[in-house]
Amino acid sequence: MSQLKENDMTESPEKQVIVKSHCNSCLGERNHHLLFLHKTKWSDDECDIYGDDAYELLKCCGCEAIILRHRSRFSEDWDEDGLVVTTKYYPPAISRKKPSWFRDIISLGSTKLSLIEEMFDEVHIAMQNGSNRLATMGIRAIIETMMIDKVTDHGTFAANLDEMCRQGFISTKQRERLEVVLDAGHATIHRDYCPNPRELNNILDLCESLIESLYIHEVKTKRLSEKIPPRPPRPLRKKKDGKPEAVPAKP
Questions:
Q1: What is the pTM of this model?
Q2: Most C-beta atoms within 10 A of its C-beta, which of 8, 45, 76, 114?
């Protein structure tokens, strides 16, 4: 929430106006051009309440991304500075971007990875709307999907983690960390746990790291290996008995 004085919600100006607002592309408060402003007011004389709304179309002065900002006031919401203004953004404000390597998913041609990307997008939407429990459950579902894809389903999360570790997809330390993430998802369902934004970002960091390790690095490494020229055959040299032998590799 932020505070506005009574004259802050003005009509659309004839000249271009610069305002401060959150930018999802730049991830922070940035200067924006006010492109359009639409205002409405309402009142209920019987209950003696009133309020107003301002819908602002804004364009970031840096990246030029366009957002809609809705600011509203209600006569019953006051503090020492006056009416309190509630601000919402469309699309909702975000605190982190998707990893840059997600742009490569389509080119990797993996059906399972495309499904994971869809689930990942839903997690981000939940985060943007403050649905931290739903986001945590979604992350748990993504990890389960990846484990089943790599080692099939062995009945329980613990058994799947054991098999992932046995086949070398994750290390022992990674297994311990993933257990915490999976337990966080379980706790949101059964133990009334709701992670705060910082905790949720930590959980998502671990999930992103696993996706990158299991899919992105795997495919990119394979493609790189195919592009590297093979080693040339080693020349033969004659032994004392006249028979040729391969030159030993340098240590």
A1: 0.64
A2: 8
